Amino acid sequence: MTNNIENIIIPKNAEKIINLLNSKGYKAYVVGGCVRDYILGKNGGDVDITTSAKPIVIEQILTEKGIKVVETGLKHGTVTAIIDSEQYEITTFRKDGEYDDNRHPQNVLFVDDVKEDLSRRDFTINAMAYNYKDGIVDLFGGIEDINKRVIRAVGDPNKRFNEDALRIMRAIRFSSVLGFEIEEETKKAVFNNKELLKNVSVERLYVELIKLLLGDNVLNVLSEYKDVIAVIIPELKETFNCEQNTSWHIYNVYDHIINAVNYAPKNEVLRLTMLLHDIGKPVVKTTDCNGIDHFKTHAAAGAEIAKTVLKRFNVSNKIYDEVTTLVYYHQSIENVEKVNVKRWISKLGEEYARDLFLVRIADLKAHNVEKIDFEIKMMYSFLEELEEVIERGDAVKISDLAVNGNDIKNLGYSGIEIGKKLNEILSLVVDDKLINNKNIIIKYIINNK
Q1: SS3 labels along 362-378
Q2: Could you give the dihedral angle defined by the CA atoms of residues 96, 102, 104 and 105, in that order, rounded to the nearest 10 degrees?
Q3: What tens-digit pLDDT sequence spans the chain (449 residues)?
Q4: I want to staple 165 with a disulfide (CB 3.0 to 4.6 A). Which of 46, 102, 171, 323 is the partner?
């Protein structure tokens, strides 16, 4: 692998902080994932800095130069410097004390040697530090593992995962995002310790899950590490061996699900929807006298299961609403020759309707391709039509109509009758059975009282 060791450029403000600390006799480096990304030639994202200076000293040195410092984690040796609206987390070299909850050390001990700080980190590719003066500090073979495209724990992987069980999800997330294989001993430890994930907060698990779902290598990871995923989404277990004996499918339910995830655009809602879209199939599966499997009402059943899963993860209301809606309706556009794009926009709104079509495309691509080529082409045409409808400004909601509640009231309607009449008019307009023109609509209402 070609790497960028000789051409690492760290942000100027990070360099400024490091130079200020160095000028006072302290060691300081950028550290962790940003160094890995620099070597891979990627944007480093969040830039973390580690130093031999204690928090109170860091604060003194930086504030003397007019740099704002926020005490974000003094207990663990962390402050945050803010320069030009950019935040840099700065942490003192440290050793972690004993872990008693598979997540947090009971205490930390500040140390003077960067080696001790790096030795407590999760994976070799994340256990490197860098500054311009010393170059890359790579004590555990991180560069070699980047070149080999492997994820290897620093030291004993079982110990690393028992210290912080979230590292199990981080391992498979990195495999998905970076396309790296997990080294054999680390892989064994992932499976041996997977139940420890039950001790991790659902919010942290969800963050890692979404990053994993958005990775280029998501298909392979969801396939190889399905037993790990099932610890945090046990409802998926029933899909693992649920066969689909039908000409429309070539995969069992779980393999269909993960292929659909892979076909979906890299979007949190869409990929999460695909992970859950057929989760209801095992519950409703029936087999007829010819041995053909059927999954009637699986979308509705899946939406209910999805609600349980999403509530457990404490997702936002927006994510909850859209994912459960898309799961519920994902099978509703099965007969493509009867699809009315404007009606779907009217029913779900522009955003949900667009995403529903994208969900259906990903779903179809994970079917038997010999059976669904026409349907896929039609779905893409619906997406084009949706954009045309939006661009033209066609009426798809009551507020788009050429008449309003007062117009209906003036024609002798009152109370809930007004709303019913507006909905009737909208339905006719959406179905192109009535032109959205005030005079035409009023004439229609008068003639159909």
Answers
A1: HHHHCCCHHHHHHHHHH
A2: -30
A3: 445 666 788 889 999 999 999 999 999 999 999 999 999 988 757 899 999 999 999 999 999 999 999 988 777 789 999 999 899 999 999 987 665 655 555 667 889 999 999 999 999 999 999 999 999 999 999 999 999 999 999 999 999 999 999 999 999 999 999 999 999 999 999 999 999 999 999 999 999 999 999 999 999 999 999 999 999 999 999 999 999 999 999 999 999 999 999 999 999 999 999 999 999 999 999 999 999 999 999 999 999 999 999 999 999 999 999 999 999 999 998 788 889 999 999 999 999 999 999 999 999 999 998 888 999 999 999 999 999 999 999 999 999 999 999 999 999 999 999 999 999 999 999 999 999 999 999 999 999 87
A4: 102
Separation CA 448–CA 395 (nearest Å): 21
Q: How far is CA 244 from the centre of its chain?
A: 28
CA 356, 360, 365 angle in degrees (round to 5)? 150
pTM listed for this prediction: 0.92
Beta strands in 272-357 (DSSP E): 286-287, 293-294
Nearest to 208 by CA among 254, 240, 177: 177
Query: Among candidates 401, 389, 324, 387, which has minimal Cα distance to 359?
Result: 324
Q: Strands 150-151 and 181-182: what pairing?
A: parallel
Characterise 432 by phi-psi region: left (phi > 0), alpha (psi -120 to 50), beta (else).
left
Hey, is 238 helix, strand or coil?
A: helix
Helix (H) or strand (E) holding 209: helix 202-213
